[in-house]
Amino acid sequence: MTPIDVEAIVFIVVKAAVLIGLGLYTVFAIVLVRQEQLMAHVLEESFQPVLRLIVYMHLFASLFVFGAAFILL
Amino acid sequence: MGPLTSFAERPSPIRFETQHEKEIVELFLRQHVIVNLGWVLTAIVMIVAPWVIFPVFFSLITLPFTIPANYIVVAVLAWYLGTFGFVLANFIDWFFNIYIVTNERLVDIDFLHLLYKHFTQAEIYRIQEISFTTGGIIATFFNYGTVFIQTAGDMPNIEFANVPFPERVVQIIRKQMEKRGGVRV
């Protein structure tokens, strides 16, 4: 019988929880992008392109952190 | 108009959904920029927390295990990502909650929690009464307040909350009412 490595199980559980959390956060980032598109349709003004760039940066940052967590943990 | 504009007379270039071809935007309003102070201060605390607050906190408690360095890296990245999202969501919430006075009507566009859009409008000629209120130290200091617009019949009343220069807003709406012949005492 092989002994159960409790520490390894804890790290797997933590990694799964972190990835699920970051996955849900990425969904939130996608919702922000979609909302910005819908809002831009309601109000057209000069700052819109900058705001669109920022929400896309946020989405890419969330994907980057998800990838980093997948690789590093 | 800049990204932090909260009061603009005859702004350009700006267009909103349902705007008619000959409809002119006379006044564009958002809540006064100072109403964002609460979440801005929270964001500043969130930015400095990993370098100031967390080390102090972890020096006061003793963990029965050592947190691996890769977990700390991911935790810091996730923390700053969350801070970024917090700032962005709050800014968008403020940025897209707007009030517009045109030569034909008043428009109140609200986005609630990023998921619900609430569009209210009232034609100028239907306005019965306008009033405004301002109170509190911060509102008095920065000169912002809430303008209440009461409309006739079943039309919804409109409230321009925490807008800069409320007395000027009332003047501009009254001027439009006079042009439309809709001023009632």
Number of strands of chain A: 1
Mean of pLDDT of chain B: 89
H/I helix tally of chain B: 5
Described by its quaternary structure, the protein is heterodimer
Structural class by SSE content of chain B: alpha+beta
Sheet of most strands of chain B: 5 strands, antiparallel
Low-confidence stretches of chain B: none
> How helix-rich are the residues of chain B, as a percent range?
25-40%
What gap, in angstroms, lies between the N and C termini of chain A?
28 Å
Strand content of chain A: under 5%
Portion of residues within helices of chain A:
over 70%
Largest beta-sheet characterization of chain A:
none
**Topology as H/E string of chain B?**
EEEHHHEEEEHEEH
Largest interface: A-B, 32 and 30 residues
**Which structural category do the helix and sheet elements of chain A fall into?**
mainly alpha
Average pLDDT metric of chain A: 90
- Helix and strand element order of chain A: HEH
Rg of chain B, Å, rounded:
22 Å
TL;DR of this structure?
By secondary structure, chain A is mainly alpha-helical. Chain A contains two helices and one strand; from the N terminus they run αβα.
Layout of secondary structure:
The complex is a heterodimer of chains A (73) and B (185).
Chain A: H1 6-42, E1 43-44, H2 48-72
Helix pairs in contact in A: 1-2
Chain B: E1 7-9, E2 15-16, E3 25-30, H1 37-48, H2 53-60, H3 69-95, E4 98-102, E5 105-112, E6 116-123, E7 127-133, H4 137-142, E8 144-151, E9 158-164, H5 166-180
Antiparallel strand pairs in B: 1-3, 3-4, 4-5, 5-6, 7-8, 8-9
Helix pairs in contact in B: 1-3
Index terms:
heterodimer, A: about 70 residues, mainly alpha, 2 helices, about 85% helix, B: about 180 residues, alpha+beta, five-stranded antiparallel sheet, three-stranded antiparallel sheet, 9 strands, about 30% strand, elongated
Could you please describe the fold and organization of this structure?
The complex is a heterodimer of chains A (73) and B (185). Chain A is an all-alpha fold. Chain A has helices at 6-42, 48-72, and one strand at residues 43-44. In chain A, 85% of the residues lie in helices and 3% in strands. By secondary structure, chain B is an alpha+beta fold. Helices cover 37% and strands 29% of the residues of chain B. Chain B has five helices and nine strands, in the order βββαααββββαββα. In chain B, the strands form two sheets. Chain B has a five-stranded antiparallel β-sheet with strand order 1-3-4-5-6. Chain B has a three-stranded antiparallel β-sheet with strand order 7-8-9. In chain B, strand 5 and strand 6 form a beta hairpin. The longest helix of chain B has 27 residues, at 69-95. The chains are: A mainly alpha (73), B alpha+beta (185). Strand 1 of chain A pairs antiparallel with strand 2 (15-16) of chain B.
